[in-house]
Amino acid sequence: METALKEEISRLTSLGLHRRCAEGDLERVAGLTLEINRLKKKKNAVICAHVYQTPDIILGIGDLVGDSYKLADDCRNAPADIIVFCGVHFMAETAKILNPSKKVYVPSINAGCSLSEAVTGADVRKLKADHPGLPVITYINTSAEVKAESDCIVTSANAEKILRKMYEKHDRVIFIPDRFMGVNLAKALGKTPGEDIILWNGTCIVHEHFDPGLIKVYKQKYPGLVALAHAECPSDLIAAVDFMGGTGDMMRYVENTNASAYLLVTECGFGELARIRFPEKNFIAMCRLCPYMKSITLGSVLALLKDPAPQEVTVPEAIAVRAKRSIEKMFELAA
Ligand code: SF4
Description:
Elements: H1 3-14, H2 25-42, E1 45-50, H3 55-60, E2 64-66, H4 68-75, E3 82-86, H5 89-98, E4 103-105, H6 121-130, E5 136-139, H7 144-148, E6 152-154, H8 159-169, E7 173-176, H9 179-189, E8 197-199, H10 212-221, E9 225-230, H11 235-240, E10 243-245, H12 247-256, E11 261-267, H13 268-277, E12 283-288, H14 298-306, H15 317-334
Parallel strand pairs: 1-2, 1-3, 3-4, 5-6, 5-7, 7-8, 9-10, 9-11, 11-12
Helix pairs in contact: 1-2, 2-14, 4-5, 5-15
The structure holds iron/sulfur cluster.
Iron/sulfur cluster is lined by residues 88, 113-115, 141, 204-206, 267, 290, 292-293.
């Protein structure tokens, strides 16, 4: 075995990746991460990895790692010529909008998102015509065209804070496209869905299917268990858990508490990362895979770095300028 490969295996082991690899698989993973990291350096590329990616991507090749908010923020000053986005298409579009001089790529043509696909620019124009004067607050999981039609973007990390600020100036707002998140936010803010907050019917195919009845079962089986759920889950599920938030909030909660066990109700990649970061803590599995996120692999990243042209993400300038305004509004209000 060549020295560089041995060193890569020990680097991945020091990051805890051996705990998530089947026996013998670490050598295969190390071969890929070694080649990707060499190519990345040669091409002056930076790799963004969302927390729903697999640990081999996050730990093995990720330079900027986090939730949608952190990655959008980090991409504003990404120190490279090329951004390879291991996340879904709307995230890469956001990176391109915020840093237009960079070339941005997604290593899979299947990295869509059910929420992003649930609403179009034409839908938002119709909503605005039906509710004149109401501000459009839009979850970041949307296309550039939808962002361009919006007044302010939010992520799960800052949606409640930004909505509170919006309600200081407006009695009613439009919130799109995640219906469940909209209902959860309305509840937290004491607002009535359909009246104070006009919602859209988008859902996340990962978070909409969790069974709230199982939370009780897990709590009985594991005394002291703390259940955390992502804000994209339906409100009956949220009512059954101890904490609701975005993935960044959930990770901080785990870090700063000492429960006997944690139930993480979200995409499986997040739980895998939490297990690696906190090996001394006990995690119970209740997760679902996002097929869009999981369409990216080390192999697809390597193929992209070898031949990036087909998967470049572009945004027409007229749309990018307007979309950037609504994203910048988020940074201003979330600060
Ligand atoms: S987990 Fe849900 S919201 Fe996130 S990318 Fe997948 S489908 Fe979209």
